[in-house]
Amino acid sequence: MTSLTFKKIAGSTVATVLALGLTTGVSGVASAAQLTPSTSSVANAREIAFQGRVSLVTPAHLSGNPATSEVVTVVSNSGVTKSFVVTHSTKVHRAGNGNNSVTLMRGERVVVLALPATPTVARLINVMSMKVSRVVTFEGRIISVVEATTSVTPAAMESVTVVSKAGAVKVFILTSSTKLLRSGEAQHPVTLIAGERVIVRALAVTPHSPLTIDVVGAR
């Protein structure tokens, strides 16, 4: 049996014993708290994270899956490409702040979190920055237009082949986010026709997916 030796110091004996008891109790609670990880930390540790820039956003009506809101394709700095399904339960944040009205755009840097059981379904998408990629411009005449029904890319509305004055030929894949202009003004609908002179603007990171196509001259 452990014995305790008390010194007769007026008013201090009881206080000392109580203090020791409280210290031991607090220490025990602290130790228990350290040994019991929170549910959120365990859940976060199990998630898969993928970081990169958005290269393509496919709307729901073109994704072929009625349960999806859209499909987001992300390219990492090392060139790895992954597509994630965005459902109605996917949370989209901008710089860590919850905002369900966030619209994902090509060129933005994002971090995508997904569960291992569903690695291609985004649980959370955090938009880290706005578009910072420079815009590249290509000017020339349309030599062919391929409609969406015959395009080999399911997410594409259509593809347009343009030839510059110098003879350079480029093919551009239009998506639902591509804006068609006529002499700098948005007009709906704008039909692209072979022979028309156009100015195509796209992000340098996705040069074949135009942000805008401006029809500046007739055939």
What does this structure look like?
With 219 residues, the chain is of the alpha+beta class. The protein folds into two domains: 44-129, OB fold (Dihydrolipoamide Acetyltransferase, E2P) (Beta Barrel); 135-217, OB fold (Dihydrolipoamide Acetyltransferase, E2P), CATH 2.40.50.140. The chain is 16% helix and 40% strand. Strand 11 and strand 12 (185-186) form a beta hairpin. The chain is elongated, with a radius of gyration of 30 Å.
Radius of gyration: 30 Å
> What letter string, H or E per element, gives the SSE order?
HHEHEEEEEEEEEEEEE
Helical amount? 10-25%
Largest sheet: 7 strands, mixed
Biggest β-sheet: strands ordered side by side in the sheet: 3-2-1-6-7-4-5
Q: Determine the mean pLDDT.
A: 74
Architecture of the largest domain, CATH level 2?
Beta Barrel
CATH class of the largest domain: Mainly Beta
Kindly name the structural category: alpha+beta
CATH superfamily of the largest domain: Nucleic acid-binding proteins
Task: Describe the structure using short key phrases.
14 strands; OB fold (Dihydrolipoamide Acetyltransferase, E2P); 2 domains; 219 residues; seven-stranded mixed β-sheet; alpha+beta
In short:
By secondary structure, this protein is of the alpha+beta class. It has helices at residues 13-35, 39-45, 60-63, and strands spanning 48-59, 70-75, 81-86, 91-94, 97-98, 109-114, 124-129, 135-147, 158-163, 169-174, 179-182, 185-186, 197-203, 210-217.
